[in-house]
């Protein structure tokens, strides 16, 4: 048996996380989860990320809905893991989605966190087309990709790759098939429907994917999961501050920034 270390994650549809802060804080500070992904955050620029993590133990990434109430996505990742946000082109600013790379030792994982409102009109088709275009453009060919969120496609069967024949469903299904994504959530998450997704190009990373209780009064079951990585790749979440302080650091103030700039300008 090979040695491995687990990264524990949690996927939540919150329907307003600001109304469930005590539940969120218990989850963050009294359980084993290293990452928490939240859809339907209902956050806005009047709510600071510090309210979500008052102890400052997590890197907080979020994309709020700006044109109306509701929606929004967020991720909280323990600070012992290195997080590299991926910046989308401004053309995709209206998408409720963001992307980041999680770097664990010499292992890199690309995460997409998204939410799609439950509509099926012409605007919904345009939104799905843009969602697929963005996801395709930033899909990594080098690292495992993981897409988490709520796409509100109750009739779309991503386990058996089938669903309604209309343009909206088929556009997203074609994307999943083209990039060989696997749906890891095989159980209903709202009533009898699988609305929440964990899609990945590397299914063997997941050792556990299981339903859990809703957060507070949410009408979605939560999803807990574990990622198994080789032990020698992992900067463990249990490292003490003393251990972290002994990690080698670059002396950036001694850098030749003119040379760095010159080199960077030659790279497309």
Structure description:
With about 270 residues, the chain is α+β, with helices and mostly antiparallel strands. The chain has one domain: 4-Layer Sandwich (Deoxyribonuclease I, Chain A). About 20% of the residues lie in helices and about 30% in strands. The chain has helices at about 20-30, 50, 120-135, 165-180, 240-245, 255-265; strands spanning about 5-15, 35-40, 60-65, 75-80, 80-85, 95-105, 105-115, 145-150, 180-185, 195-200, 205-210, 220-230. The strands form two sheets. It has a six-stranded mixed sheet, with no helix packed on it. A six-stranded mixed sheet has the order 5-6-7-8-10-9, with no helix packed on it. It is globular, with a radius of gyration of 19 Å.
How would a crystallographer describe the biggest sheet?
6 strands, mixed
The CATH superfamily title: Endonuclease/exonuclease/phosphatase
What are the segments in which pLDDT stays under 50 over at least 5 consecutive residues? Answer: 234-247
The average pLDDT score comes to 90
Which band does the percent of strand residues land in? 25-35%
- What would you report as the Rg, rounded to the nearest angstrom? 19 Å
The CATH class assignment is Alpha Beta
Number of helices: 6
Shape: globular
- What is the architecture at the second tier of CATH? 4-Layer Sandwich
Give the tally of structural domains: 1
Indicate the structural class.
Answer: alpha+beta
Give the N-terminus to C-terminus distance in angstroms.
Answer: 44 Å
Please give the share of residues in helix: 10-25%
What is the CATH topology assignment?
Answer: Deoxyribonuclease I, Chain A
Order of strands side by side in the largest beta sheet? 3-4-2-1-12-11
The SSE order reads EHEHEEEEEHEHEEEEHH
Number of strands: 12
